[in-house]
Specification:
By secondary structure, this protein is an alpha+beta fold.
């Protein structure tokens, strides 16, 4: 799986030109059909239909699904919905209140929060390294807040701020779409990082 930009038109143009590199060998990926259609909920509770593009590497023969940064691997909700839940939890809200506010099942939200909490240290480390690498000037590192979950969310937001300061053209991405890109869509996937 390869994480790509939001615009399917730009993805098609880059794919046709060989502008998306194979993560295995680095050769330019080529179009190779479509993945299974899936339905994704957005922040307004609306269902969006998504059919990810498939690609094949002419170098190593591997196939890859091109997943837009708006979603995470194996999640039925857009990454901004999951990010809203994570921010609310970092601010002290419980999973029941978050689920009610987003109009989602409690078990779904609780699962996200547990999965993120289990890897909060790794997320904080990854985003802090990204912040230091891309900050145009001396970065202001998020200080320890006393809780790993809140610290990880603060690191995500700080890294996203540094990315948009360095590359203003990505300002349209939310902090959670940025972390979806950095994690390759695997932020809540088993075995990541």
């Amino acid at each position: 799986m390869v994480t790509v930009e939001v615009s399917p038109v730009r993805v098609e143009m880059r794919l046709a030109a060989g502008g998306i590199a194979c993560p295995g060998c680095g050769a330019g990926l080529r179009p190779w059909g479509w993945s299974r259609r899936r339905s994704v909920r957005d922040l307004r509770g609306l269902r969006l239909e998504l059919t990810p593009r498939r690609s094949r590497c002419p170098g190593c023969g591997a196939t890859h699904v091109l997943l837009p940064v708006t979603v995470l691997l194996r999640r039925a909700d857009a990454v901004v919905v999951i990010g809203a839940a994570l921010v609310a939890r970092a601010a002290g809200a419980g999973y029941r209140r978050i689920a009610a506010g987003l109009g989602l099942p409690e078990l779904t939200v609780r699962g996200w929060l547990r999965r993120f909490a289990a890897r909060a240290g790794a997320v904080r480390e990854m985003c802090t390294v990204l912040l230091v690498q891309v900050a145009p000037a001396d970065p202001v590192l998020p200080g320890p807040g006393g809780e790993g979950f809140a610290d990880a969310v603060a690191a995500v937001l700080a890294a996203a701020g540094a990315v948009t300061a360095r590359w203003p053209e990505v300002v349209a991405l939310s902090p959670w779409q940025m972390v979806a890109a950095v994690s390759g869509g695997r932020l809540l996937a088993p075995g990541w990082p």
